[in-house]
Design brief:
The chain has 145 residues and is an alpha+beta fold. It has four helices and seven strands; from the N terminus they run αββααββαβββ. α1 runs parallel beside α4 and α3 crosses α4. Bound molecules: zinc ion (ZN). Zinc ion binds next to loops. Zinc ion (ZN) binds next to loops.
């Protein structure tokens, strides 16, 4: 058994990978989200996601929110440039890792757990966050970050 998730080393990408596979069960049904593949440029110790705005638009979430999630999961600083639509992370990661973190975001903050639809939005009321499904009307509280 692994201990608390809060105490692990977030730079351990092996751990991140195992977590992704653990938490996302294979899903035979539900709507496929054809997320654009992250276009990655690595400069020194930084990673730039060129098409970050496009990805966020596909998720129907504010780039700033998605950016915050990526930064948290990758233990990275992040800087979103609304002019170019690019996100700069302060860690070196592959497109595959970025994609896996985005998949976790979709699972927890985009996809309706009741019907599998991705036509959802987040309602944030202070400390309470609700994932509201526009397809079936289900409301699910999700963990704020
Ligand atoms: Zn639903």
């Amino acid at each position: 058994m692994s201990g608390s998730e809060e105490s692990h080393d977030l730079t351990d990408y092996e751990w991140l990978l195992s977590r992704v596979y653990e938490k996302i069960p294979p899903r035979g049904s539900g709507v496929t989200l054809d997320l654009p593949e992250p276009q990655i440029i690595r400069v020194g110790t930084q990673t730039i996601i060129k098409n970050f705005r496009e990805i966020s638009q596909r998720l129907k979430r504010e780039p700033e929110l998605v950016s915050r999630y990526l930064a948290k999961e990758l233990a990275s600083a992040s800087s979103y440039d609304s002019g170019s639509g690019q996100l700069t992370l302060s860690v070196k990661v592959s497109g595959k890792i970025v994609r896996q973190v985005l998949d976790m975001f979709v699972k927890d903050y985009v996809r309706c757990p009741t019907c599998g639809s991705i036509d959802t939005h987040l309602e944030r009321k202070g400390k309470v966050w609700l994932l509201v499904c526009e397809a079936c009307g289900a409301e699910q509280s999700v963990k704020p970050f």
